[in-house]
Amino acid sequence: EDESMPNLSGENKFFNLNDETDKSPKIIEKSINVSEWQTYVNESYNMELRFPDWWVVEMQEEMSGDMKNLQSIIWLSDKKDPYEGVTVMVVKDSLENTLNENKKRKDIIPFFAEEYYLNINNIPSVGFKGDDMYSEEYKKVYILGGKNFSYIIMTNSEDIRIFEGVLHSFNLTK
Fold first, then answer.
1. Which of 42, 129, 130, 149 is deepest in the core (most CB within 10 A)?
2. Alpha helices in the chain (DSSP H)
3. Band of the pLDDT at 48, cuts 50, 70, 90?
4. 3-class secondary structure for 19-66?
5. In this structure, are residues 154 and 16 in contact, taking their beta carbons and an 8 Å threshold?
6. Mean pLDDT, to the nearest integer, of 152-170?
7. Is the separation of the CB atoms in 66 and 133 below 8 Å?
């Protein structure tokens, strides 16, 4: 059995976003060329991704609150409109544990809806559409599972194509 795949309960169908012959529903449209975007690399969290030149990166590592094992929050946002962008929450836990921990919170604060399982650049992932813990509607939410961390990637941006470009460029460095 492939050790990189998470042990998630229930019947899960994983979609491979890099397989153009895949007849599964298309989750991400590759409609933006990210090859000329800036690359953000964080060796501490074993990740890299691309973002538009007109965006900036901010990071918060002093964490408090009720989210278990949260290590860092990375904001990628438009220089002109800081509310347009992508948030990456780095959690020191497996995809399965991060998913289950957030499902427990659902009883208190609505968060996840329309759950689906997929691979993004061969990284086991779970996608959602729903409201986040602050009741601000997120257009898309994904949890990607790495070796030592999981990554909650979400956007409230109106331009979903940019988010999909950022998400599709996400890779693990180790």
1. 149
2. 95-105, 160-169
3. very high
4. CCCCCCCCCCCCCCCCCCCEEEEEHHHCEEEEECCCEEEEEECCCCCC
5. no
6. 85
7. no
